[in-house]
Amino acid sequence: MVNWPLEIVRAVLLTAAVFTFMAVVAAMFGVLLERKVGGWIQSRLGPKHVGPQGLLQTVADTIKLLQKEHIEPRAADRAIFNTAPLVVAVAGLMSWVVIPFGTLGDRVLVVRDLNIGVVFFAAMASLTVVGILAGGFASNNKYALLGGLRSASQMISYELPLAMALIAVAMEAGTLSTVGIVEAQAGWFGSFAFRQFPAFVIFLIAATAEVNRVPFDLPEAESELVAGYFSEYTGMRFALFQLGEYGEMFAMAAMATTLFLGGWKGPVLPGVVWFLLKMYLIVFLLMWVRWTYPRYRLDQLLNLSWKVLLPAGLVWILITGYRVTF
Q1: 131 close to 84: Cβ distance less than 8 angstroms
Q2: Is residue 44 assigned to a domain?
Q3: Are 100 and 110 in contact, with CB atoms under 8 Å apart?
Q4: Residue 36 lies in a domain
Q5: Is residue 42 part of a domain?
Q6: DSSP conformational letter for 186
Q7: Strand, helix or coil at 110?
Q8: How many helices (H) and strands (E) does the chain have?
Q9: Model-level pTM?
Q10: Where are the alpha helices (DSSP H) in 191-266?
Q11: How far, in Å, CA of 36 to CA of 44, rounded?
Q12: Overall number of domains in the chain
């Protein structure tokens, strides 16, 4: 017999914990980390003035955004305009529901171990497209609309190779549960980073495009689109788009850790520590790529997805199926 009041209380508390973790760590610490990593790669200091070594710079930026005026374009669709940032932020946070952080005794630290966890993650990642497209459309701004359309075409294109990588891993593990996929990996050399290396590469490239990061940040191409789909957003509405982007980036890194790096598994250290170390290694890689490579053209971006990653993903699924069967 399910105790529904207890389940509801648990769901509310876990949601608050995940939202707090993502709002503080993924958004505030993530922005500071990105600035410091960018400064290191480009041989400059990065933020230094607010707080010791610039540690409070993101806090100051957050306070500034909270004080900014909320401006709505005169001809905007108010309901959709105000809802779009929430859709993006919530979709980025909902992806964390199926991410297992580690173990506490015999219990796995995960909000919900769904038997279709991988499918749920893909669905939440796809929901971001709706918010971005709605924000660009509702702004009644041609540049924002073009940014939203470009973002939709990019993200839908790269969801397909991302799904190919997820399918290959699920076939290898024999389950769609994220906890089951971690348990199917034994040790570092038994992780799917080696056994599913092509899927690992496809996943990382597709995940970079899915969260609109360089070299796949065409939706935010400021040289031709002002600022892309969020051109008309100010204050905390603008910050919610950034929260969704960073939440999705950290979620992609966490899912890559779960699918390919053995999740929380590792010697000596607690499982949560191993999980965070691996996740931040992927985050650092994504930041390194951002500050290293130039932006792709739209035709190059779409050709990479449809002509390279998608055929490679299909071929690798066939190879994985042959290996699993025989």
Answers
A1: yes
A2: no
A3: yes
A4: no
A5: no
A6: B
A7: coil
A8: 14, 2
A9: 0.89
A10: 192-195, 197-210, 222-225, 235-260
A11: 9
A12: 1
